Each structure stands twice: as structure tokens, then as C-alpha cells.
Amino acid sequence: MVYILQICSVLALASIAIGAPNEKRAPTVYLAGDSTMAENGGGSGTQGWGHYLQYSLSAPVSNKAVAGRSARSYTVENRFQTLIDTVKSSDIVIIEFGHNDGGSLSSSDNGRTDCPGAGDETCKSTYNGQAVTVLTFPKYLVNAGQALVAKGAKVIFSSQTPNNPWEGGSFSYGPSRFTTYAQSAAKQVGANAMFVDHGQYTANIFKTLGKSKVDSFFPNDHTHTSPAGADTISRAFVKAVLCADGGVLSGLVKNSTASVEGACI
């Protein structure tokens, strides 16, 4: 009788072990960025595109974008570290900065400007009366991306959304150096990272929509969009992901490629 009970116990444990792999945890998609992505990031009458991404994904979206932040300030304020501490295996983090990363460190440091350069260059600066070492834009991204991947997460480096490309009267868009830097960061982080040219996909849709429509997307300034504009920009991100066959978001996008306006590039 004891022998039979032991066999039954072993079979029960084996059954539990076999069933365990089927209990796969659903990933969470985290967003790290500035006001163009953040909830109500641009002030009255505006919305960040991150708000609408939840409607295109079958995974929950946690928007950790904060207005006014750059890759540098997001790092210094330990916001990347909080994400690194939070993510679990299979989670996905979308990182999009650039609007607040430009400027100069030579006159006065605003705490957001990065050190010029595309690699390991560093700059010495003074911020709030303290001597600080400032890294380059891609270095901040690579450091965060590598740490997130080490936790089992996957990362999307996304180029910044464009300012109103119709502002001057005719359509004009050219990617900034931060687009190249984000693409470089994805390559350096490796197989568990991808680059999405969100800026170009958005610009292409804006060009098709025309000046009048796109002007209406920017109620306060040339950077922050209305809810309708944010929705359009969110769909541009989804289009870019779909055109890459889903990438690290494979299986999580509810839209079909054809259902989102714009063409693959």
C-alpha cells in the first residue's frame, strides 16, 4: 500500500511539473518617453500618443512617460532604474526620446541636454551647483536597454515624433540625429531589441493627410498634439511595427497591417 501511494505521489508531482510551462505569464508593455508620449503631457487640449496604444495591443500598457524628460534626465531621476527593477521576463519596453535632448552644455545646463556624440564620449558639466558627468544620448539608451534585456525584457527603440511638418506652409520633414542614435542603440543591445522609425512613419501619414488636417492636430504649439493627432501618431507606431512583422511585439498587435493607413517603408 505504501508503495502504491508513493507512485501516486510521484505521478501527481510529474503532472504538476508538466502543466507548469503552459501557464505563461502575459507580458506588460511599458512606455518610457517625454510629453509627446505621456498622458496629457503637453498641457490643456493635448494628449500623448502612448494613451492610444492600449487599443491596438492585446497586452496591458503601462505608460511611464513623463513630460519634459530626456534620455539623460529620465536616467538621472532613476526612472529607467525603476523600470529595470519592475520588468519581468517577456515584458516589453518602448523607449522614445529626442525632443528634450538637444541644446548645449556650454552656457547653462538645463539637466536634460546630452553630451554630443554617438558613442562613449562624456562631458563635464555643472547642474544645480553640482559637478556632473553627462553621457551621450545613445549611451543612455544602450545602458538602459542592456539592463532591461538582462532582466528578460525586450526593448523597442523608437525615433521621436515630428514637430508639425506643415508649419512652414509646405511639407518639410527630415529625421534628426536622434533617429540615427536610436537605431544604433537597438543594434548595440542586440537580438532582444528592435528599432522603429516612428518619426518617418508619422511624417508619411501627415504628408498624406495634408496641411489643414495636420495643423488641427497641434492646438497649442508645433510639438504637442490633440487627442485626434495623438491617435494618428499611435497608429503610425503600430504601422511601423506591423511592417516589421511585429518584431518583439509579434502576436500582441490586434490590428492588421492593411487596416492602418500609410505604406510600409
From TrEMBL:
Pfam families hit by this protein: Lipase_GDSL (PF00657)
GO molecular function per UniProt: hydrolase activity, acting on ester bonds
The entry's keywords: Hydrolase, Signal
Listed InterPro entries: GDSL, RhgT-like, SGNH_hydro_sf
Signal sequence region: 1-19
Taxonomic superkingdom: Eukaryota
Keyword Signal: yes
Family per similarity comment: Belongs to the 'GDSL' lipolytic enzyme family.
Protein name per its UniProtKB record: SGNH hydrolase-type esterase domain-containing protein
